[in-house]
Design a protein that fits this description.
CATH topology of the largest domain: Rossmann fold
CATH superfamily of the largest domain: Response regulator
Radius of gyration: 23 Å
Distance between the termini: 37 Å
Shape: elongated
Number of strands: 13
Strand content: 15-25%
Length: about 350
């Protein structure tokens, strides 16, 4: 039976107007009454759940640490987190920190500004001993943590939200092999940064499937551009110059702009098959202009929503780790680009 606002009001002995204000995080209600409403809503099963994980009975302060300036996807993810959190009654506040870069030092500097009332933190971070140390100190202070887009499994995080990156890399290799069926030659990998565990996993998965199913395609070059678009442009220019018969390029993370720019300037035909990640305004254009053949998208909106939900779920849960909910990748071609 569906639980109504009236049923919650009756359960906690308050008016329906008060219950409505509490559930929608509106002003004009005391902290004590807000807690009574949330506890009653939780008890009656009114509040949403993340899978089998109940959400907290009172609004929680959340913070996210993201290297937004690194690429467009990070910026879109931050925008979606803000938008979704603003409509969640159980989010008391949502603060997003734009990290200077992906280094552990940048994360540490940003975490020094962590709010005293914060209950949950989401991070996109490299898998490094100093990163794990920063996360351990937050966990020791009673803060629940989730990792987003790239996991740090040895850290005391409650959940990971994002793609199964190894499977994403394997998918890219399967697509590359089938698009180049019958051809033999060289493939290049452009990695955003192997400091990200997710990028390393994608490359491992890609290499595994090529070796298993398409031995006629060989990865002859793998460059790490450290999230630098200009570096990816220069490296791709050099690749195309030194390997005029290059059959394909797999861009594991950031650096898509540089690869696309080099391909656009290329005059020789045929163009290498180009597979990259994340549907953004730029990659939409690459598909339309036939610069990119496939975009493997991790859906920034869904990743953002699940990040907020899983973080709230980890705060509510008595378990140190809650089940992962991988984001299912979307394969976007020129003919099925979703509406913005």
């Amino acid at each position: 039976m569906k639980v109504t606002v009236a049923a919650i009001a009756q359960s906690c002995g308050l008016s329906t107007a008060t219950v409505d204000r509490a559930l929608n995080n509106r002003p004009g209600i005391s902290a004590a009454n807000r807690q009574r409403v949330m506890e009653a809503a939780q008890r009656l099963g009114y509040l949403p759940t993340a899978g089998a994980v109940p959400l907290p009975s009172r609004p929680a302060a959340l913070e996210f640490f993201l290297p937004i300036r690194q690429n467009v996807f990070m910026g879109e993810l931050a925008d979606h987190i803000r938008a979704y959190a603003s409509h969640m009654p159980l989010v008391a506040s949502c603060r997003i920190h734009d990290l200077d870069d992906i280094s552990p030092a940048s994360l540490q500097t940003a975490v020094d500004d962590l709010g005293l009332q914060t209950k949950g933190v989401g991070v996109i971070a490299v898998d490094h001993p100093r990163t794990r140390g920063v996360m351990q100190r937050m966990a020791d202070a009673g803060i629940r943590l989730i990792t987003i887009a790239s996991d740090v499994p040895a850290a005391p995080r409650s959940a990971y939200v994002g793609l199964d990156n190894r499977a994403a890399g394997r998918t890219a290799a399967l697509l590359m092999g089938r698009l180049l069926r019958g051809l033999s030659g060289n493939i290049a990998i452009v990695t955003g940064s192997r400091s990200y565990r997710g990028h390393e996993e994608r490359e491992m998965g890609f290499r595994a499937v090529l070796g298993e199913d398409f031995p006629e395609l060989a990865v002859t070059t793998s460059v790490d551009i450290n999230e630098d678009g200009e570096a990816s442009y220069a490296e791709t220019q050099m690749l195309l110059r030194e390997q005029p018969g290059l059959l394909g390029i797999y861009c594991v993370g950031a650096g898509r702009f540089g690869v696309a720019r080099a391909l656009k300037e290329r005059t020789a035909a045929p163009k290498p098959v180009f597979i990259c990640h994340d549907l953004t305004p730029l990659t939409r254009g690459y598909l339309v202009d036939d610069l990119a053949d496939v975009v493997i998208d991790q859906n920034a909106r869904l990743t953002a929503e699940q990040s907020v939900i899983q973080l709230l779920g980890s705060i509510a849960s008595s378990e140190p780790v809650i089940p992962n909910r991988y984001i299912e990748p979307r394969l976007i071609f020129r003919e099925n680009i979703p509406a913005q």
